[in-house]
């Protein structure tokens, strides 16, 4: 039986990658900000139209570091959503901050910007919204709230690489944005991530944080950790970036094929294209509500046919056992997110998914 997983990493041709990494055999320079690292950073700054990109070995440490770089007081509150991968909430809590969970909106599953103000207290320091599935948050409303209350905004843009709002890259909103370049993402560096931001002063801070605070052979200015992207990761990024447009174009065809089968089916809700947004087709979430079968039944049925869909993002992060002691935990506080988490299934999507396979997946779902 042919196995289909929820996604499959985009990779350049084997020869192309070998050619890119050949120079590493010549130089024996494998990590610590080598030529591939510098090249990828510059190419991303150009591609994203963003003043600064700092590369990381993964998206999680990028998020954790940029939150730390803001130097919020211990115990400060950060407004975020629970409809995300645990990394978002972990990055807040591991910085000694308290996540305050805001509900999501039922249209695009991003933070419900109309509910943010009611959660602001004198301890609130920041908002960490998530461009979940590559859907853009209401960046304009969030910017207005942040300005009114003097809050920092750090976007978890893990899913939103190459997405644009009104022609502007998702990298250019808020005080900073974090991208994940994990193998499962639209653009990957095997593992990897980046922080993008406009503030010149943050460049040194983040570079210190990801490299032990070392500034030279005899200088250590800061108690930093190690979160550097290595040369093999960066080389994968340099290669993958060359083919990104083609890969996104292929994902678009997969998405359109799904829509041709599932749009308008009673009990099935698809995420509508957002106005003014250029998408990246990162995920294909389907909400089963009043359909002939439950989300879990569909999940099982697909599994029986060798198709692995995923329940991203169930459970909500505010109902994980590791957060049981948080005063803000509890999925009943975010009912829209709880409703979605119980009903959503992300169906397989990747550039090389054959359209006949999409037909087959839909046939199984609809039967
Ligand atoms: N914020 C958000 C909103 C995020 O979604 C993430 C990560 C982060 C922050 C943190 O960024 P990173 O530190 O990860 O850069 C996956 C990914 O590991 C994770 O990166 C991602 N979000 C999350 C949503 O999904 P799993 O546990 O579902 O991955 P896994 O191993 O089950 O893989 C899923 C499918 O991908 C496989 O069935 C097949 C395919 N795959 C996987 C791997 C590892 C490949 O084709 N190639 C591969 O190498 O977490």
Defining traits:
367 residues; alpha/beta; Aspartate Aminotransferase, domain 2; binds ligand T4K
Helix and strand layout, with pairings?
Elements: H1 14-27, H2 35-48, E1 52-56, H3 59-69, E2 77-80, H4 86-93, E3 98-101, E4 124-128, H5 139-149, E5 152-156, E6 164-165, E7 168-169, E8 176-180, E9 193-197, H6 201-210, E10 214-216, E11 219-220, H7 231-242, H8 244-262, E12 268-270, E13 277-278, E14 284-288, H9 295-304, H10 335-343, E15 344-347, H11 355-366
Parallel strand pairs: 2-3, 2-4, 4-5, 5-8
Antiparallel strand pairs: 1-9, 6-7, 6-13, 8-9, 10-11, 12-14, 14-15
The protein binds ligand T4K.
**Count of all domains:** 2
Q: Which ligands are bound?
A: ligand T4K
Q: Identify the CATH homologous superfamily of the largest domain.
A: Type I PLP-dependent aspartate aminotransferase-like (Major domain)
Question: Mean pLDDT, rounded to whole units?
Answer: 97
What is the name of the CATH topology of the largest domain?
Aspartate Aminotransferase, domain 2
Main beta-sheet annotation: 7 strands, mixed
Q: What are the secondary-structure elements, in order, as H or E?
A: HHEHEHEEHEEEEEHEEHHEEEHHEH
The secondary-structure class comes to alpha/beta
Unreliable residue stretches = none
Largest sheet, spatial ordering of strands: 1-9-8-5-4-2-3
According to CATH, what is the class of the largest domain? Alpha Beta
* Global geometry: globular
Q: How many extended strands?
A: 15
Helix content: 25-40%
């Amino acid at each position: 039986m042919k196995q289909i997983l929820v996604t499959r990493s985009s990779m350049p041709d084997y020869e192309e990658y070998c050619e890119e990494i050949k120079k590493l055999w010549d130089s024996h320079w494998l990590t610590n900000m080598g030529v591939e690292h510098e090249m990828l950073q510059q190419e991303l700054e150009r591609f994203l139209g963003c003043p600064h990109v700092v590369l990381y070995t993964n998206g999680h440490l990028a998020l954790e570091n940029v939150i730390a770089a803001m130097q919020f007081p211990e115990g400060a509150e950060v407004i975020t959503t629970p409809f995300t991968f645990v990394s978002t909430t972990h990055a807040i809590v591991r910085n000694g901050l308290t996540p305050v969970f805001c509900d999501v909106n039922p249209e695009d599953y991003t933070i419900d910007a109309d509910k943010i103000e009611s959660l602001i207290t004198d301890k609130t320091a920041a908002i960490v919204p998530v461009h979940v599935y590559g859907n853009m948050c209401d960046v304009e409303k969030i910017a207005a709230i942040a300005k009114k209350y003097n809050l920092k905004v750090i976007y978890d843009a893990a899913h939103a690489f190459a997405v644009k709002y009104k022609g502007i890259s998702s990298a250019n909103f808020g005080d900073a944005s974090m991208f994940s370049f994990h193998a499962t993402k639209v653009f990957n560096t095997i593992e990897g991530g980046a922080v993008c931001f406009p503030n010149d002063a943050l460049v040194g801070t983040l570079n210190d944080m990801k490299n032990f605070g070392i500034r030279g052979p005899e200088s250590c200015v800061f108690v930093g950790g190690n979160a550097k992207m290595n040369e093999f990761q960066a080389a994968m990024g340099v290669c993958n970036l060359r083919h990104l447009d083609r890969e996104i174009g292929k994902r678009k065809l997969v998405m359109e094929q799904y829509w041709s089968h599932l749009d308008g089916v009673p009990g099935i809700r698809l995420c509508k294209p957002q106005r003014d947004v250029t998408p990246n087709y990162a995920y294909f979430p389907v909400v089963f509500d009043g359909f002939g079968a439950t989300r879990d039944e569909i999940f099982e049925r697909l599994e029986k046919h060798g198709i692995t869909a995923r329940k991203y993002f169930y459970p909500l992060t505010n109902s994980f056992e590791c957060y049981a002691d948080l005063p803000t935990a509890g999925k009943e506080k975010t009912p829209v997110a709880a409703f979605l988490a119980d009903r959503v299934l992300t169906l397989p999507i990747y550039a090389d998914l054959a359209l006949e396979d999409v037909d087959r997946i839909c046939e199984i779902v609809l039967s």
